[in-house]
Amino acid sequence: MSETPEFYSDGIEVNLTMPWTVALTFSLKDTSKERKPLPQVTVRMSPEQAKISTMLLKRLLKNYEAESGAAINIPQGVYRQLGLPEEDW
Fold first, then answer.
1. Residue 28's beta-bridge partner residues?
2. What is residue 57's three-state secondary structure?
3. What is the pLDDT of residues 63-84, one digit of tens each?
4. Rounded to 10 degrees, what is the CA torsion of 5, 9, 13, 16?
5. pTM of the model
6. According to the model, what pLDDT value does residue 1 have?
């Protein structure tokens, strides 16, 4: 039986190629002078799978926060930089 590869990521790039494919490219921060993200893996999926995956991940993280009593805090600057309203969470 082959092992499933595991990756650690501290960055993500999200692309939608209309109308067929969502591509998530997970990367690591580059510690060299160039500071370019180092791609680790790209996962491609249908928009339908991406939507369901997003909903499931949100539910999982909300349950984690509720059960642990610990909020997953994101700095306000990150929300602004990404153009995400905090209330969407």
1. 38
2. helix
3. 999 999 999 999 999 999 999 9
4. 40
5. 0.80
6. 67
Q: Where are the domains of the chain?
A: 11-82
Q: Which tokens in the block code for residue 27? A: 């990367």
User: Distance of CA 28 to CAs 11, 42, 82, Å?
Assistant: 6, 12, 18
Alpha carbon distances (Å) from 37 to 13, 32, 33, 64, 84: 10, 10, 12, 29, 21
β-bridge pairing 21-28 and 11-17:
antiparallel
What's the chain's average pLDDT? 93
Task: Give the CA radius of gyration of the chain.
Answer: 16
In the CATH hierarchy, which fold is given to the domain comprising 11-82?
Transcriptional Co-activator pc4; Chain A (2.30.31)
